[in-house]
Specification:
Length: about 300
């Protein structure tokens, strides 16, 4: 199997992206908003630094995407939990457990909905964010509408890809954690690949597999580290509102739960999506000369 991508693959830089005349080829990617981004094989620090630069530069657009696709569900999940502990505070529940009657049906529904949001919507949110940060990486900027439309055009492929590889990942995690992680690594780039290169689900799965397998352990390590960083940040941001919600009681405290869930969604999902996108570019730079393609395009279309 050839490592070179088939004709039509790729996400090249737009016309006009390049250095001013006489300044030579660009050594960095990015825009004025992001600052310079690495246009060479990326270290762990390069990727983590790039994640936060891209998140900061595109935060408004990313917030709109997350707000449209994730936060409404977070609000509904929090609302369904309003009767947990009978709506009483955790202090009242400890003092008098008999007052803490909760709705088992409501808790079951909220748990199921929360799971559905986290696993079903993730590829669509990740793909839309990947479209935004990919454009930003190569020197342009797109809005949330364009990113969501691009994701909508590939919604079927994204869902089919998710349905193909996630069940096996789940089984791997249930029976032994490492096989799940190993399987996840091979498809960590699926959403960026499908939406950036406009591929069907089958070609997207194959493309992600090929890119990840070229630097397997590095891809796994970066993905796990970024996930750990995102989880820690999300817990810090959501910890205060979640704690206050249980202190005052979920009858009204569910609003604070929703705030905590929204803050968590605004951090965890973008970091995961941006990391996957930078891993995609890193793999192409290392094996397909993507950096040289950007340099050549910059020289062909000088500012």
């Amino acid at each position: 199997m050839s490592d070179a991508p088939p004709p039509g693959y790729g996400y090249g830089p737009p016309p006009g992206y390049g250095p001013p005349p006489g300044y030579g080829p660009p050594l960095k990617a990015g825009t004025a908003a992001t600052g310079p981004l690495p246009l060479h094989p990326m270290s762990v620090s390069d990727i983590l630094d790039g994640v936060f630069k891209l998140l900061k530069a595109n935060f408004r657009t990313i917030a709109v995407i997350v707000g449209c696709l994730v936060i409404p569900g977070q609000i509904l999940v929090a609302f369904l939990q309003r009767n947990a502990l009978g709506g009483n505070s955790i202090i009242d529940a400890i003092r008098d457990p008999s007052t803490s009657h909760s709705s088992g049906l409501g808790n079951l529904a909220s748990s199921g909905l929360s799971l559905a949001i986290s696993v079903v919507l993730l590829p669509f949110v990740g793909a839309a964010i990947a479209k935004v940060v990919a454009a930003s990486y190569v020197g342009t900027q797109i809005g949330p509408g364009e990113a969501l439309r691009a994701t909508g055009r590939r919604a079927g492929s994204l869902f089919a890809a998710w349905l193909t590889w996630h069940p096996i990942e789940f089984i791997g995690f249930v029976f032994c954690i490492f096989p799940g992680i190993a399987w996840m690594t091979m498809f960590v780039m699926v959403a960026p690949v499908i939406v950036i290169e406009d591929l069907s689900f089958g070609k997207g799965l194959k493309r992600s597999w090929n890119l990840a397998s070229r630097r397997y352990w590095g891809t796994m390590g970066v993905a796990l580290l970024a996930g750990l960083v995102a989880t820690i940040m999300a817990n810090v941001l959501s910890g205060v509102p979640d704690t206050l919600a249980f202190v005052i009681g979920l009858h009204w405290g569910w609003i604070l739960l929703a705030v905590g869930g929204a803050l968590s969604a605004l951090i965890v999902t973008p970091i995961a999506a941006i990391t996957a996108t930078l891993l995609y570019f890193d793999a192409r730079i290392r094996t397909e000369g993507f950096d040289l393609q950007i340099i050549a395009a910059g020289l062909s279309h000088p500012s």
